[in-house]
Amino acid sequence: MSRIFWVGVGVTVTVIVVVQGRKIVARFAPAAVVESATDQINDAGARGLEAVRVFRAEFTDARRRREAELRGALLADGQPAPEDVRAARSARHRRADGPAVDDEDELGYSFF
C-alpha cells in the first residue's frame, strides 16, 4: 500500500513541476525559443511513437515465429495440430449419437 502512496506522490510532484515550469518558461523565455523547443519536443515524441510501433511489429513477428518453432518442436511427427483436434472435438460434442473418444488418446500426450 505504501508503494501506491509513493507512486501517487511522485506523479503529483511531477505534474506540479511541469505545470509550474511551463508557467516560468512562458513568462521569461522569448516566444521563438519556446516555439523551437516545442517543435523539438513534438519531433522527439513522434520519433518515440514510431520506435514503439516498430518495436511492437518486430516483437509480434518474432513471437509468431517462435511460437511456430516451439509447436514444431513439441508436436510429434504425424501428430495432428492442436487446432484440428479441438475442431474435431467440438464437432464430436455437437453430435449426441457419436461414441466418446478420450482426448488424451487423440492428442498423444497428457498433462496428468
Distance between the termini: 39 Å
- In total, the number of strands is 0
Order of helices and strands: HHHH
- Rounded mean pLDDT is 82
Fraction in beta strands? under 5%
**Residues in helices, as a percent range:** over 70%
Question: What does the largest sheet look like?
Answer: none
Structural class: mainly alpha
Please give the radius of gyration in angstroms. 29 Å
Shape: elongated
* Uncertain residue ranges: none
The number of helical runs is 4
Biased composition (Acidic residues): 100-112
Region (Disordered): 78-112
Topology of helices and strands:
Elements: H1 2-28, H2 31-74, H3 82-94, H4 103-107
General description of the model:
The protein has 112 residues and is an all-alpha fold. Helices cover 79% and strands 0% of the residues. It has a domain at 24-72. The longest helix has 44 residues, at 31-74. Residues 78-112 are annotated as: Disordered. Residues 100-112 have a biased composition (Acidic residues).
Provide a compact summary of the structure:
The protein has 112 residues and is mainly α. The chain is 79% helix and 0% strand.
